[in-house]
Amino acid sequence: ETGVTQSPTHLIKTRGQQVTLRCSSQSGHNTVSWYQQALGQGPQFIFQYYREEENGRGNFPPRFSGLQFPNYSSELNVNALELDDSALYLCASSPRDSLNEQFFGPGTRLTVL
Amino acid sequence: GEDVEQSLFLSVREGDSSVINCTYTDSSSTYLYWYKQEPGAGLQLLTYIFSNMDMKQDQRLTVLLNKKDKHLSLRIADTQTGDSAIYFCAESIERGSYIPTFGRGTSLIVHP
């Protein structure tokens, strides 16, 4: 059984640029959630996708957007990058009948210069 | 509102028990979780407890929940150096999506 995978592992961007992060959910999991984890903090919920539609959103501006594909993989897009967007971005997948059990990927470390 | 508080650091000797504490504010929390994060890695779900339980044991891990005081603890018996990591407490409320709210994490350091 393949776990949650994320790409790329690390990324360096400059202010104002756009970035796309990718996530493949664990086999059999149809719900994907994205989190931002700043240094020294716990993860903060960005949004969740189920059946290719947004199913909940945290307190993040519209320049944070996402997609879920028919194979349940997902993308997180961030436009107009700011220095404070530097963080570890975590993807988690869960089966629809057990949403409280989230399995996390290793994350993408984004640095904005 | 939702808020989860944890102490930031805990240092224990190898072989001793570790107890990591957490308090939360939302009395309507449905599930309470403990996650482990090793350096450079994502989060690993260690265990969770439903709010109508007061204790859950899983091998070396014991979770205690005091719903009246909104206090959750994780006890690790016979702590090993491999247990050194950051431990996150989280809560979620049944709103259809069970989104967890995390604390800042407790850094557990196990020394010989």
How is this structure best described in words?
Chain A has 113 residues and is mostly beta strands. In chain A, 0% of the residues lie in helices and 50% in strands. Chain B is an all-beta fold and 112 residues long. Chain B has no helices and eleven strands. Chain B has strands spanning 4-6, 9-13, 18-24, 31-37, 43-50, 55-58, 61-66, 71-76, 85-92, 101-102, 106-111. In chain B, strands 2, 4, 5, 9, 10 and 11 form a six-stranded mixed β-sheet that branches. In chain B, strand 4 and strand 5 form a beta hairpin. Classes of the chains: A mainly beta (113), B mainly beta (112). Chain A binds chain B through residues 4, 33, 40-45, 48, 55-56, 58, 90, 92, 99-107, and chain B through 4, 30-31, 33, 35, 40-45, 48, 88, 90, 92, 95-105.
**Strand content bin of chain B:** over 45%
Helix content of chain B: under 10%
What string gives the helices and strands of chain B in order? Answer: EEEEEEEEEEE
For the biggest sheet of chain B, the summary is: 6 strands, mixed
- Determine the fraction of residues in helical runs of chain A and give it as a percent range: under 10%
What does the radius of gyration of chain A come to?
13 Å
Number of helices of chain B: 0
Secondary structure elements and pairings:
The complex is a heterodimer of chains A (113) and B (112).
Chain A: E1 5-7, E2 10-13, E3 19-24, E4 31-37, E5 44-50, E6 53-57, E7 64-68, E8 74-78, E9 87-94, E10 103-104, E11 108-112
Chain B: E1 4-6, E2 9-13, E3 18-24, E4 31-37, E5 43-50, E6 55-58, E7 61-66, E8 71-76, E9 85-92, E10 101-102, E11 106-111
Parallel strand pairs in B: 2-11
Antiparallel strand pairs in B: 1-3, 3-8, 4-5, 4-9, 6-7, 7-8, 9-10, 9-11
Note the main attributes of this structure.
heterodimer, A: 113 residues, mainly beta, seven-stranded mixed sheet, four-stranded antiparallel sheet, 11 strands, B: 112 residues
